[in-house]
Amino acid sequence: MARTSTAPTAPHDPKVAADVEAVIATLGGMVEAAFHVVDQIAGLVARQVGGPGARTRARLAGVEDLAGSYVGDSQHPVRGAGFVAAVGFLVDQPWWLEWFAAGEDGRSHRMVSQTDPDGAGFYDYEFLPWYVVPRDTGHRHVTGPYIDYVCTDDYNMTYTAPVVLEGRFAGVAGADVGVQTAESILMPSLRAASRRVAVVNQQGRVVASNSGRHLCGDLVSDVDVPALWERPSPALHVLPGLPLGVLELGS
Amino acid sequence: MAIQFYGRATAAVFAPLDSTSRSARVARRLTDAIALGLLPDGEQLPGEADLAQQLGVSTVTIREALSVLRQEGLIETRRGRGGGSFVRAPEDGPTALAKRRLAEVSLLELRDVGDLYAAIAGAAAALAARRCDSDDVRHLRRAAAHLADAQKPDARRRAEAQFHIQVTVASQSARLYHEEVGLQAEFGTLLWLAFGDDDSHEQMVTSCDAVVDAIEARDADLARRTAEQRVAAATERLIDYRLSKEL
């Protein structure tokens, strides 16, 4: 798979140094690879569930093969993918996750979660950012790096996009990329950079960097990243419309 | 075989990996799950081959563990079509099971696990104070509010467990998270024997709020101290309970 070839990043800015540009392109490529999976799942769900007839779980049938074709491919960065229905959207399952994740054997497995609100260990996703942000903004979102304690028990980044049918929020299509995978994808361009740079999210949390003081999960403390997001700065290169960017850390 | 002496520091390398046998550990894990109510009465366990694969042990080990559970009356195995192993929660409830477990544990062991738990909880809280963002604080407040609102002992136990999971999530450490989950399964069941009443619940809500306050203030030292004290106080309470009851 071409991880970097289709990277749609910010328009080329001659003031951005080539080594930083390379990190931005690698990040953009990884993000697009994940959203490519998300968009295909969103499209499939829209085709299958849109239109007349009762909206039932059965109409999500094709998601398994589609998600599995990426999740079960060890060369692809996406290790989990699927569709999470808006609460109350499906008539037969008020809460439902049609989700698939790579098992120890590398194959794609259905994730079974408790969708009965009265059951022990109920998976209440209605307040989780990967669900809430696309629902409330109508846009794509990247959640993490975070410890996914309700689902995969792993250190993850989750890429989600809303699925809207006839003006109504139907749920989110999503894909997971583990932070270790993200690190291995981003590291070559980070290592090649001649200055200290970090891939950060909007909160200033580090995804990967070439500085030992800024490891994945740390918050950048010497710069107010959330504030930088509000007003353009030559030190921060934001992926358009996403809470991810490349931050030049200074010497 | 001659036993080489490699010096004190390296001796740990050649120490037995685990003193309890694998089947005993599997039996303990399933017993804890039944005691915690994670495996409710009547629940069918996965087949032997599936269990072996999931837990990463041989089917022989699973068979041994299941036979222990069968002897203790915690599962019932039916043959033939629609057969399998089914959970039989003890008639006197999960609490009785936890009491039996507690009776087998020495005071020294209790203190030892309590010390480890305090170290884990303290480290997680200190890292959370350094690494939390505004979302994390919001989730912690939400979890603390859930705990404060919980009325029944079982709901309180789940809300409290959830709160501590959230602290390790805010610490951004996958290892600390896994340690917390493991300790909750091992130690949480026992701790809850001494908790759940209104008096202890109030204390717990206060101490959890204090942990969130310290995390939000980004005071790592205070967060560590507060979390350590909470676990130390809980362990003490459990030891007092163990001493006061005829188990």
Automatic annotation (TrEMBL), chain A:
Pfam families: MCP-like_PDC_1. This is Cache domain-containing protein. It comes from Nocardioides silvaticus.
Automatic annotation (TrEMBL), chain B:
It holds the Pfam family FCD. Coiled coil: none annotated. Keywords: DNA-binding, Transcription, Transcription regulation. Transmembrane segments: none annotated. CDD domains: WHTH_GntR. GO terms for molecular function: DNA binding; DNA-binding transcription factor activity. SUPFAM superfamilies: GntR ligand-binding domain-like, Winged helix' DNA-binding domain. Residues 20-90 form the HTH gntR-type domain. It comes from the Bacteria. PANTHER family: TRANSCRIPTIONAL REGULATOR, GNTR FAMILY, UXU OPERON TRANSCRIPTIONAL REGULATOR. This is GntR family transcriptional regulator. The lineage of its organism: Bacteria, Bacillati, Actinomycetota, Actinomycetes, Propionibacteriales.
